TrEMBL record:
Signal peptide: 1-24
Keyword Signal in record: yes
Protein name: WD40 repeat protein
Origin: domain of life: Bacteria
Stored InterPro entries: WD40/YVTN_repeat-like_dom_sf
Region (Disordered): 250-269, 274-318
UniProt keywords, alphabetically: Signal
Length: 345
């Protein structure tokens, strides 16, 4: 029996080794414990405070943004925005390279009938505590008319703002704002690419080489090249009560998905293969995201486009390898147990 237990233990160690390392690198999910946050509609990983995620409620809450600590799920700071009027339908949040937090009051539950929406901007606090800050307010219109939207993404290298419209059954689009937003006059966003997804949120990778967009039940990953998205395949999305938000973890290797609802969960999904941002592949440093893939050089675009056609297969390869190891280990365990049982008989 002792031999049997030793064999089982050894095989168990093989199984753990097969699946352990990837899980250890993945950030933990967390539960939002603040009873005030019942409609978390946007999510952004802090640049200044590791382990902190900024979020906000959907409509009917007020000018509030919350800093939630991932380790505990507690709100460690509530920021009240001053000087912006009454928010209408706040749907998204993003952090730019300038150290500012951008909040998208861009939703339109009336099906795209409001002739303008707003983006608010405030500096990310250096200290996490409750505070009231004066925010800049930018008026936004679309070149091709009003529409509903829930995704605001600020590129982490260029600082340019993008909005993805939300349209059931497809027909959505990505809109590009002016090079710099202005508080005077109107900021016109122009369509730059079609998006065949009912988008509820989106995020750029920290190095700016990937754009992730999510819907309630699916997601797509895009390579950011020449200032435009190049679709490289689907990404996993967890089953959630009402999946509304997504952001990259600070290292760029994991997507963090949020949901509406009281006590909602933020769930991690690890990226693999071509889904990974360039800096997360080990070939580029964090500061190189403004190179070919991020800002527009052609680089090795032919090879990249060829590999992108097989992106979903490439993304599955690491998982397939782990599964094969687990299956192999389980088979070896069964064979060993049978052999030992025969010897005892």
């Amino acid at each position: 029996m002792r031999s049997l237990l030793c064999a089982a233990g050894a095989a168990g160690m093989v199984l753990c080794a097969a699946v352990g390392p990837a899980a250890a690198d993945e950030p933990d999910g967390f539960k939002v414990r603040d009873a005030r946050i019942t409609e978390s509609s946007g999510l952004a990983a802090s640049r200044a405070h590791p382990g902190i995620y900024w979020t906000h409620n959907d409509s009917d809450d007020g000018p509030y943004v919350y800093a939630v600590e991932a380790a505990s799920g507690r709100t460690v700071a509530t920021v009240t925005l001053r000087g912006i009027g009454a928010p209408r339908d706040v749907e998204a949040i993003s952090i730019g390279p300038d150290g500012y937090v951008y909040v998208g009051d861009i939703g339109d539950n009336r099906g795209g009938t409001w002739d303008h929406v707003w983006i608010y901007r405030f500096p990310e606090p250096k200290r996490l505590r409750d505070a009231t800050v004066t925010a800049a307010q930018f008026t936004v219109k679309y070149a091709d008319g009003p529409r509903d939207a829930e995704a605001l993404m600020v590129h982490p290298k260029t600082g340019r703002a993008y909005i993805a419209s939300k349209k059931q059954g497809g027909g959505g689009a990505l809109y590009e704002g002016p090079q710099r937003l202005s508080t005077s006059g109107v900021n016109t966003f122009r369509k730059v690419a079609p998006i065949d997804l009912w988008v509820t949120d989106g995020a750029f990778s920290p190095d700016g080489t990937r754009l992730a967009l999510r819907s309630y039940f699916g997601g797509r990953m895009y390579r950011w090249q020449d200032g435009r998205p190049k679709d490289i395949g689907s990404v996993g999305v967890p089953i959630q009560q009402q999946g509304e938000s997504v952001t990259f973890a600070p290292d760029g290797r994991t997507l963090m998905y949020g949901s509406e609802g009281e006590g909602s969960e933020v769930e991690p999904v690890e990226l693999t293969g071509s889904q990974l941002p360039e800096s997360a592949k080990g070939g580029a440093g964090p500061g190189e995201g403004d190179s070919d893939a991020a800002s527009g050089g052609s680089g090795n675009s032919g090879a990249e486009e060829g590999s992108s056609r097989n992106s979903e297969d490439a993304g599955m390869q690491p998982s397939f390898g782990k599964g094969a190891l687990v299956l192999l280990g389980a088979t070896a365990l069964v064979m060993l147990l049978r052999k030992l049982v025969r010897r005892r008989e």
